[in-house]
Amino acid sequence: MKQADQYSSDFHDELLIVRHSGEIPEVALHGALFFLSSDPEGPGLTLSPAEILELKKMAVERYREIIKRDLNPENRDKGIYRGLARCIVNWQRMEAFCLKEDFTVAPLRKETADRLISFINKETADVLRKIRSSSVNCARVDLEKFAKNLGLEPEDLPGGWPELCPCKCLMTSKPGGF
Fold it and tell me: Which pLDDT belongs to residue 8?
């Protein structure tokens, strides 16, 4: 295989790894950057700014996918579901990463706000109809702060949302959060 073909293959393999990484895409990104350019076992590539940007965009896409997963009501009873508490944490991580990399979060914020409203609509309807108990696993204050960070006010959320939140919760607001 030609050296250019191997370069392309190694780079595209790492793009896929970052895109389909686990719960912390930024860790996968840094692993890929190290492997591709500095790891003695890696290919020793010199990545262009465009290639580095492409890898970073894959990390954002993975964050987006994780957040989307946890705001999909169809996932509530599946093993992949982590809940709103984890969604909030992943949003914070993605937002911090985007700010650090000077990526705009506005489209992601709007998309996530719409998904949050849809999720709460479905959750409220199911709980009121006694189809299920609430799957919301974060404190009311955390959900309210998350909504505000997404550009929503409490009155923008579907009626009855506070009752979805548990009275006692392991996750609580932290100083400096949101």
Answer: 72
